[in-house]
Design brief:
Layout: H1 3-6, H2 12-44, H3 50-61, E1 73-75, H4 81-92, H5 96-119, H6 131-154, H7 163-168, H8 170-175, H9 179-194, H10 201-204, H11 208-222, E2 229-232, E3 238-241, H12 268-295, H13 304-321, E4 327-329, H14 330-338, H15 345-360, H16 362-366, H17 370-384, H18 387-396, H19 398-413, H20 416-433, E5 445-449, E6 456-465, H21 470-479, E7 485-496, H22 498-513, E8 517-521, E9 526-528, E10 537-539
Parallel strand pairs: 6-7, 7-8
Antiparallel strand pairs: 1-4, 2-3, 5-6, 7-10, 9-10
Length: 545
């Protein structure tokens, strides 16, 4: 085995001394990706552009020392845009400045709630939510982001607020397109889609958002966005452009600090958004950390509860000074690994670079066109809700597609909490129709045998293993000693759902990595819902003779 992979990098100052070059390089490259995304996410959330920068700086320079993960990058994420924008609009009642300060108070309280989640060991939440419902929630977020950001990308102010109304009004919006702004947005979007297709290794190392910025700033200068003026296009129509189409940052970073307004924190609207920020933010962060752990070349395992506490502290502080909520963000974290990040110091360095750049070069950031940032978010939304996601969900099983679609439609029609709640309810109803006894919805039934002087533990599962009772099964599996032989026997089970299959597949991978064996047996009497290797399984129906 490669020696580099077997020698796990040390944490703390020892890790800094040995790996500072690779972590500094990775941190710088992540900074190049993070800067435009932080600005774009802030803009889309109804927050000042600097809000996302505040969050990423806190996530990098402080949460690095509080979290339980080595390779995740902490910062604002597209998945929370809809909640942040909704909080500003609903709490502000038409006053964006007031809504921003009231939303900051919500972020502070939700951060405190996340700290409590970590203290009571709620990191297992990542294993509870059905995969199809989570992917449906993310796809719905992607659709909403596209609907809202397309208008900014073409330089048109939307008259509607709701997602479906925004899509319905798009044909009319394209008639009022601002050509210069649309050219910047269109070229930026084209770069985001085409850049990953290049096969050259040197080109692939450059982050696409950086290329967008390097192309869009000269275009903005060429179109003279810095100065308010009118121009004629090919159709002879007169259009207006000016600094409102550029990012606005304060020259002094300290002057941008905004304090929260707690006057409405006990209102039902505030409480709703506290729950949404805490629940959805925690879930996204946990799932991202879990995914990054699987990519870690050194196979380190994050302390999910400690990481949740760190993110909660970061969110509390971000809300107190005017920042967006943060999570462990998967795109920047993946870039961190791909660019050689080895320890948590890469997250720290990415925060340092952001602080230095925003503090000393605000005028350069001011040259970035908003249309370019909108194009990056449209691309992010497309990736969350791409046709490929629908197809892959269908390949796992038609029942997974149903849960996926119910979650999307319910989220678009109502909000994220109701959407994922209905997705979960749909899955429970499908399980009850498949024969899941009501008393075993949240309580698994299993036995364990370990013959004397044997290193083999056989766990026999009865009735059903589904997403809602998996946490208790996993907690028991965690009590078994490592580096032994574990056999999970489903001979007496009637139903295993996709979420459990997916989680057990990951658990098996982790247990084997730790030096043991982990086998799933006794599933021959169960029929798969599709050809996918992690599809749901249900007891085969016997034909009447």
């Amino acid at each position: 085995m490669n020696k580099q992979i077997t020698e796990v990098p040390q944490a703390g100052l020892a890790g800094l001394r040995k790996n500072w070059k690779s972590d500094l390089t990775a941190g710088f490259l992540v900074f190049l990706i993070a800067l435009p995304l932080c600005l774009g996410i802030s803009m889309a959330s109804g927050f000042p552009p600097v809000a996302g920068i505040f969050t990423a700086i806190i996530g990098g320079m402080l949460v690095t020392f509080l979290g339980g993960s080595q390779l995740t990058i902490k910062g604002p994420a597209a998945g929370l845009i809809i909640i942040a924008l909704g909080a500003v609009n609903e709490l502000g009642q038409g006053d964006p400045a007031a809504g921003y300060r009231l939303a900051l108070a919500v972020i502070v309280v939700s951060g405190m709630l996340q700290i409590v989640f970590g203290w009571i060991k709620s990191g297992v939440l990542a294993d509870f939510f059905p995969s199809a419902a989570v992917h449906g929630m993310l796809a719905a977020i992607g659709i909403i982001i596209i609907a809202k950001q397309l208008y900014t990308m073409i330089g048109v102010k939307p008259e509607a607020n709701e997602t479906l109304e925004l899509f319905a009004a798009l044909p009319g919006a394209f008639k009022d397109i601002n050509p210069d702004i649309a050219i910047i947005g269109g070229i930026s979007l084209l770069i985001m889609f085409l850049f990953p297709l290049f096969k050259n290794n040197y080109i692939k190392k450059l982050p696409a958002p950086l290329i967008v910025i390097l192309v869009s700033i000269p275009l903005g200068i060429y179109f003279d966005l810095e100065h308010e003026h009118k121009y004629l296009f090919l159709d002879g129509h007169e259009y207006s452009i000016g600094p409102r189409f550029l990012v606005t940052l304060p020259e002094n970073l300290l002057s941008a600090i905004t304090f929260p307004d707690f006057s409405q924190i006990f209102s039902m609207t505030s409480i709703k958004y506290v729950i949404m920020f805490a629940l959805v933010g925690s879930l996204e962060s946990l799932l991202s950390t879990k995914a990054i752990d699987s990519l870690d070349p050194y196979k380190r395992k994050s302390n999910m509860n400690k990481d949740l506490v760190g993110v909660g502290i970061g969110n509390t502080l971000a809300g107190l000074i005017g920042g967006l909520p943060m999570i462990s963000e998967i795109v920047r974290s993946s870039a961190n690994i791909n660019n050689g990040g080895k320890t948590a110091w890469s997250n720290f360095f990415h925060g340092v670079f952001l602080l230095v750049f925003v503090a000393f070069f605000p005028l350069l950031i001011h040259q970035i066109p908003l249309a370019a940032l909108a194009a990056m978010l449209v691309y992010t939304g497309f990736r969350l809700a791409s046709p490929k996601e629908f197809y892959l969900t269908y390949k796992i099983g038609s029942e997974q597609l149903l849960i996926f679609l119910v979650t999307i439609i319910a989220t678009l029609a109502t909000d994220l909490l109701i959407g994922i709640g209905l997705g979960i309810l749909t899955k429970i109803i499908l399980h009850l129709r498949s024969g899941l006894p009501i008393r075993y919805i949240f309580k698994p039934l299993f036995t364990v045998t370990n013959p004397e002087d044997s290193d083999t533990y056989t766990v026999s599962v009865f009735h059903s293993a589904v997403f809602s009772n998996y946490i208790k099964l996993k907690k028991f599996l965690d009590t078994l000693p490592r580096k032994k032989a574990v056999v999970l026997d489903f001979t007496n089970a009637n139903l295993i759902d996709h979420t459990v299959m997916e989680n057990l597949h990951q658990y098996q991978h982790d247990y084997i990595n730790e030096g043991g064996t982990f086998d799933l047996v006794g599933m021959d009497h169960l029929q798969k819902k599709s050809d996918h290797h992690l599809a749901s399984r249900k007891v085969k129906k016997t034909k009447a003779v």
